[in-house]
Amino acid sequence: MKTHGTGFTEVYAHSNAFPYDLSVNINPLGPTNKLQILRKFISCYPGNSYAKLIAALCKLHIVNPKQIALGAGLDGLLHDFILCFLKPGEHFLMPEVTFQNPCFSAALAGGIVKKIPMNNDLSVDFEALSASLVGKESIIFLCHPNNPTGLLEDLTKIKQLLKATKALVIIDEANIEYTSGPSCLSLLSQFSNLVVMRSFSKAYGLAGMRIGYSLACEHIHSKLHNSRPPFNVSGIASEMAIQALEDQKHLADSLKFVKKENQYLSEALKGLNYQVIPSDSNTLLVRLPLEKQMSVKEFIQNLNALNCHVVHGAYFNLPEGFFRIAPRSRDINENFINALKHITLQQQHVKRFSSII
Ligand SMILES: Cc1ncc(COP(=O)(O)O)c(C=O)c1O
């Protein structure tokens, strides 16, 4: 798609020179002075090629620029892919217990969402997935690691799946940085139907900026680019992603921090008789103690009354009894554990009282 303007931020953002560019329709005074530091990025369109960020990502993943596409968060990118590649009546396959957001886009595209039941240990059932390949599928969606289980998929099985289908296999690696891998990126050069998606929202801490990217072969991305408008990522988001990639120490510190807090949460939860499902990632899937005579809905209402929040397992199609958490800072995590203790005490009190009357 042809666009106007000089690609202002890409060319001029890191110098004091300004082009005499009357082609762009933007506020000559710019925004409020309170945002001085971000001025250049706010009042101008981003360069449509996002060259600096793409170059940084190419260096990180050793791919060429056309193998990368940016989007408004992994969510935004997934939406764009689904609207581009899923036609009415075609099948969108995904495990039953996983991140549910793409269902909305698949339904909007007129696709038929087929949710594949899990193995008993909540891992993806690749045999059932293969059995669902009937030639009508155009997208297969998997999270690696899965959310909410935090489990990494088996790369050999993903490889077999890629061989067995012509459909696009989208691997959502939003949380891959928290794991010890391996990433599906190693399969990229072998399969032209593989799309790996990454997010800046998680380990890089930019959730509010809405920026993510996909890695796939050129012809997939050129089809995608022809189906969506330009400037789909803001200049500020792109600049912040560049800064985030440059600060690898902050990334390493964040991963270390999250690991420590996960250990703290897991041990504290187990100490209170909650079952913590083993996770390769930062998210923890937790089961209420069997002796708790409380539904997850009631449990969450009690938690909310104490200003604590978790995700109900039902969001991920899990049976009754599960909720999911992701670690925060130690004071917030401690507050959460104290809330659980409070709820347990309250319950013991009610039980004792009801056995007296
Ligand atoms: C597995 C998974 N994919 C995608 C997303 C959304 O990522 P983004 O913020 O980049 O849209 C999330 C966020 O919760 C997630 O857990």
- The geometry reads as globular
User: Which strand order does the major sheet show?
Assistant: 1-7-6-5-4-2-3
Q: Give the CA-CA distance, first to last residue.
A: 75 Å
How many separate domains make up the residues? 2
CATH topology of the largest domain: Aspartate Aminotransferase, domain 2
| β-sheet strand percentage | 5-15%
Figure out the total of helices.
Answer: 12
Helix content: 25-40%
The largest sheet is:
7 strands, mixed
Give the second-level CATH assignment, the architecture of the largest domain: 3-Layer(aba) Sandwich
Query: Which stretches are low in confidence, meaning pLDDT under 50 for 5 or more residues running?
Result: none
Mind telling me the CATH superfamily name of the largest domain?
Type I PLP-dependent aspartate aminotransferase-like (Major domain)
Q: For the record, what CATH class of the largest domain applies?
A: Alpha Beta
Structural class given helices, strands, pairing?
A: alpha/beta
Order of helices and strands: HHHEHEHEHEHEEEHHHEEHEEH
Bound molecules: pyridoxal-5'-phosphate
* Rg from alpha-carbon coordinates: 23 Å
* Count of extended strands: 11
On the 0 to 100 scale, the average pLDDT is 90
